[in-house]
TrEMBL record:
Keywords from the named record: Cell adhesion, Glycoprotein, Membrane, Signal
Broad class of the protein's primary localization: membrane
Taxon lineage: Eukaryota, Metazoa, Chordata, Craniata, Vertebrata
Gene field: Msln_0
Protein source organism: Polioptila caerulea
InterPro entries in the cross-refs: Mesothelin, Stereocilin-rel
Protein name: MSLN protein
Amino acid sequence: QLSCLLRMVTLHGIPKDLDTYPQELLLFLSPSDYTATGSCSQFFINVGKANVDVLPREAPQRQQLLLEALACLKIPGTQISEENAEILGWLVCDLGGEYIRNSGGSLLKDLSHCGSFLPEQEEAIRDVLSSGNTTFGPPATWSAFTLSELSGLIPVLDSRILQQIPK
């Protein structure tokens, strides 16, 4: 339905008021099409707020959106700043383990909103958390507040990390 609506809306070009349409519509639009009405970073801010469940994780459009977002933000390697993670929104949920490891704790807040993870992502999250080089510190110093901050990542924690957390 959304791709059909997009065809109708863009029949005569990209409308200037595209930002007033549902954000999920942008999932089916190319960022290069959008730049006629705004910047590519604004496009990905809006995409990052859209309902992630509209596109399954394996969908080619979703993978393409991530690649285009990384290019738009001029992220050369696999390290993502907190600011860029905020722009990516739910797209951080699709980042591979190498991005999670190399970005340290800057992705944890955004990753905690993801519904599920691939095994390589889970392993990377555990590596980052157990390193203690995050704003949360090492697991041995975590409190109930820390756990509430990490609530979306708790299912990823393994016994090695859980045993270090004070009772």
